[in-house]
Amino acid sequence: IPVEDFDLVIFGATGDLAHRKILPGLYRRYLAGQMPPDARIIGAARSELTDDGFRDETRKAIEEFAPKVDKSQLDAFLGQLSYVAIDAKGTGGWEQLKERMRDGVVRAFYFSVAPSLFGDLAQRLSEYGIADDSSRIVVEKPFGRDLESARALNATLAQHFAEKQIYRIDHYLGKETVQNLMAVRFANILFEPLWNAQFVDHVQITVSETVGVGGRGSYYDNSGAMRDMVQNHLMQLLCLTAMEPPYHFDPDAVRDEKLKVIRALEPVSETEIVRGQYQADGGDPGYIDDAENPASRTESYVALKVRISNWRWQGTPFYLRTGKKLRARTSEIVITFKEPPHSIFDESGQKANQLVIRLQPDEGMDLTVMIKEPGPGGMRLMQVPLDMSFADALGTEAADMPDAYERLIMDVIRGNQTLFMRGDEVEAAWAWADPIIKAWEEGKARPEPYDPGSSGPDEALRLMHRDNRRWREIR
Ligand code: BG6
């Protein structure tokens, strides 16, 4: 079903994110018949480019970053694109942009630029009368680097746009499984009665990556895993796993519940957080080589134990970890249930039920249950998975599932903010993360070294062992 007719301006249209995600994503929505035939995509950036020059760049980007996608309709798609060279801090290009915009269609502005330009863009859009009360702006992460800067950014945007016009992207919320987590929890009777401290022993949230930070070392070295991943992506996963049922699947109802989770987080003690930095390995550069800063104490790995101080989760810890250059690219949420209160079987072999919600690489869910080992050997127990791969279940290749970005952009056009972060949520997440980061920055300790291709520093294993638990293997 096509969305409403729109004019979408992408600021930073020649940048990496536009090339890798935004433009290929829009093309895929075009192929899916979701883009209205008159919709326009207007690239805006500093470089002097003609419309055709921008189309050529976009063609190359789509060929490179969406290699398997059908290219037969690429020319028609590119026909909907145009370009304006713009000076975010000056006057150049703004009148031209204004002339390009049509009346009576949705106007959306994607800020795929450095956060230091967000304020300038917002100001110019209102100054030149390009944005009106119904326009939408989309802002990329990082949304600030601490509570103070996030507040300042919210205040700047609020001078020109109402909260209902601001779409703060966390692309993890656009992932299929993340939304499925809400469907599984709230559209079934099976799980919710067990989804609390009485029946859940602990929760693990892992986002492990195989890539290092090479190529984006200068950004990353001022950020680190805590700011780059935990404060946003892992926090969002935590919220959706832990939140109370919203009264309706409505943007503010969902975001109110997420906010309550963040506010209920206890401060993390220093002994319950582990930071790591990957080492060099043979010819492969280590973190400090990639960051080009031999003295860097920035973490490329974090593991921590989080407690949610509310009725539902009292006594059930959430363990979070994320890192670069680890053994495999895996993102999953693992709910480990408690063991039955009493075993009636002599030979136990009993293992706790686990629900694994896989975000990556193949999206799906896995529930382990105990059954009787088949055969005449008596009552022996064994653990089997009830596996559901979404791609299998839906008969589609996983690759055909819409990417997080394309789904989120379509939500912007539809005016649906459910999967976007509200200003107060972002601030609350920084308020929780700030003391952790500050203590770290003020301290002298170096991150724990870990080997590339491993599952992180040994200290992170000990974080779990101390509680008589273990991480699910990264594979
Ligand atoms: C980004 C981070 O937000 O998410 C990157 O800045 C990280 O450092 C990326 O690699 C991970 O996203 P995905 O979708 O590949 O898991």
Keywords:
single chain, 475 residues, alpha/beta, 9-stranded mixed β-sheet, 6-stranded parallel β-sheet, 34% helix, binds 6-O-phosphono-beta-D-glucopyranose, Glucose-6-phosphate 1-dehydrogenase, G6P_DH, G6P_DH_AS, NADP binding, EC 1.1.1.49
SSE topology:
Layout: E1 6-11, H1 16-31, E2 40-45, H2 51-65, H3 74-78, E3 81-85, H4 94-100, E4 106-111, H5 118-127, E5 136-139, H6 147-160, E6 166-168, H7 176-186, E7 200-208, H8 217-221, H9 224-242, H10 251-263, E8 273-278, H11 287-290, E9 301-306, E10 318-323, E11 330-337, E12 354-360, E13 364-372, E14 381-389, H12 390-394, H13 404-414, H14 423-442, E15 448-450, H15 458-465
Parallel strand pairs: 1-2, 1-4, 2-3, 4-5, 5-6, 7-10, 8-15
Antiparallel strand pairs: 7-11, 8-9, 9-10, 11-12, 12-13, 13-14
What can you tell me about this protein's structure?
- Its EC number is 1.1.1.49.
- The active site is at 233 (proton acceptor).
- By secondary structure, the protein is of the alpha/beta class.
- It has 15 helices and 15 strands.
- The strands form two sheets. The protein has a nine-stranded mixed beta sheet with strand order 14-13-12-11-7-10-9-8-15, with helices on both faces. It has a six-stranded parallel beta sheet with strand order 3-2-1-4-5-6, sandwiched between helices.
- Strand 4, helix 5 (118-127) and strand 5 (136-139) form a beta-alpha-beta unit.
- Helix 1 crosses helix 13 and helix 6 (147-160) packs antiparallel against helix 14 (423-442).
- It starts with 5 loop residues before the first strand and ends in a 10-residue tail after the last helix.
- The structure holds 6-O-phosphono-beta-D-glucopyranose.
